[in-house]
Structures
1.
Amino acid sequence: MSIVKTIAYMSTLIMAIVISWALTKSNIFLEGNTILALPWGIVTFVDLYIGFLYVGIWMVIREKLPNSILWIISLFFLGNLATSVFILYCIKDCGGDYKKFFLGKNISI
């Protein structure tokens, strides 16, 4: 579990730095149309949001409804930064138990 924890901490830090950098360089609301005008821009967004769908399903399975809704909202606004923070939360919560890592308190599923 320690390698997962290290990767999650590194991912969280990298995402926070890159997002902060991008926010100082450009405005996604102004440049979003340019990105979506490109075929690979569309592919990137479809790929990203399908990934969000899968992570969101995991969040709903693992967490009770009010918490999972908050996690999903943060996922759609913060992207994989929210995924990295969620993984860190799951690592802390599971105490090294992989089944609990994936299922939380819903281990009977």
Note: The chain has one domain: 2-103.
2.
Amino acid sequence: MKSNIEKVYSKLPKTELAKVELGYLQSVSSDAEKAVKKYDNTKDIVKAWQNVKQTLNSIKKDVVLVKRSRKANIMGIEGVLQDINGEIKTIDARFKELGIDGKNSKELTTAKRSAYVLGNFLKDLNNIDSLEDVNI
């Protein structure tokens, strides 16, 4: 059983039918062009995502590095600081016993400066926000 549209189409001369088909084709073509224009920003979205993904991967590597290294550095610095500060106290005590002014010792000054710098490194590492909440 033919639909009403099929009945009308079947009665039209071929030239009229071709005009109808051409009009339909032009409509489809126009709609397709409009869709391309409407969604033309897709290339920009994909490019932006690729940039974001690259940035996230870089951040992830940095977070992993910090998580792995932070604790080891804290423990290492604490141990070295304990050793250096103990040695500095021992040397200061020996200098006092011998009546020597330790302020004139370049090596002792360097050791104290290094201990100070290491102490600041330790403070900085301890002041890093918790990375346990970062799940990248």
Note: DSSP finds four helices and no strands in the chain.
3.
Amino acid sequence: MNILEIYPKISNKYIPLSLLDVSTRNYIHWKKENLLFRYVDKPTNTIEKRERILLNVFDAFWISIVKELREFNVDFPTIRAVKEVLYANAKFNEELLDATPKDDFINSILNKIPESHRESFKPYLLDGSFIDLLKDFIDEKTIYLFKNIGVILFDILYREYFVSLVIAKEDEHVITQILRLDSTSKSSMTNTIDDLYSNYLTKQTILCIPLTNLVWKMFEDPNFEKYNTKYDFFTENEQVILEALNNDDCKEIKVYKHDSGDMSLNLMFEENVKNEKANEVRKILGLKQYEKMELTYRNNNHITIKNQKKIILKNQ
């Protein structure tokens, strides 16, 4: 399973640059300085100057990272080095590959290739050299599946990982590491934290950006809501919850994060609905960090929704 199968529209350009609080002037400057990803290189004199700039989720995510780095006065060469890592071809999980029948693996890749190119591409799959030829066979929307930035978004949006970007310098070389913590596994979290402490925190100066938090902001910010809906980040039932956040007829929302039945968040509508709890509900919905939610209306009608993603995972 990949992120395009879950969110088929995620590569579509819906998000206005202004929503990221980045000026068009900065965007054009960053583009001239080769800080932004280009699927096909274009001469700098073709860079747009006045037209409205729309972004897909991957590039909005990257620009949010660039913005974060610039706020810490990180220089352009360092940002370019980080970009090279995040937009590099992802490495396949060798253990998973060994456990996957060869035909299944080949077919899973061929399904992402335009049908007219499949036969010519197949020999490169067999000899393992396909990863370097992806840009010649795959369109702009699909290429992100094979990039580190696409894997990171999949980990955050689907696998419930906490992902951080760690940047350090050794002898003027930029060292970029991507740290993943499986929020569902205590042992994984402990091992990753131990690795961070022993290999980085005690040995060198680092800059650490929690990438998961940047995605959280997309869901917490009410201004993103209509764009998140365009990307189908929310099911129809989840959209009922979002609408309830601004509905005077809704009295209470209860959030249950686990099978235990323990309620983890209770939003009473006697309070101001545009507070941190409402933003927390948006984030929980977007990242699917709940088992079920219950709505109670003032006429005492109840609605219960269950997390379809967790149901799918349990059935796999």
Note: Confidence is low (pLDDT under 50) at residues 41-47, 94-99, 311-316.
4.
Amino acid sequence: MKLVNKIKFDRCVNIIKEHLEVNDNILFSNSRSMDGVDARHTLYKLCSKSSIRNNVISEYMKEKGIKVSDSNISASIKRINKLISDDKDWASVINKLENYL
């Protein structure tokens, strides 16, 4: 099962990098820039949609050099869900990204 989750995680990472036009330096940094924050939060949302549990997401992020707690991942997903419900443009972007899963 671990291999399946790793494949799903890597697929989500590639979707984010390709369609949000960010690289590893932005996605896997502790930067508070909006590009980095939005990309990471969107990654967590896609991983969640792919049935990857928060503790597994946290583990893979740690392998990439980012320490993030399960509760931070949950809060990030809630933030994205709020953006989706409040902003049609965000909803469209997330829907498009989810279609690549």
Note: Residues 41 and 90 are 12 Å apart (CA to CA).
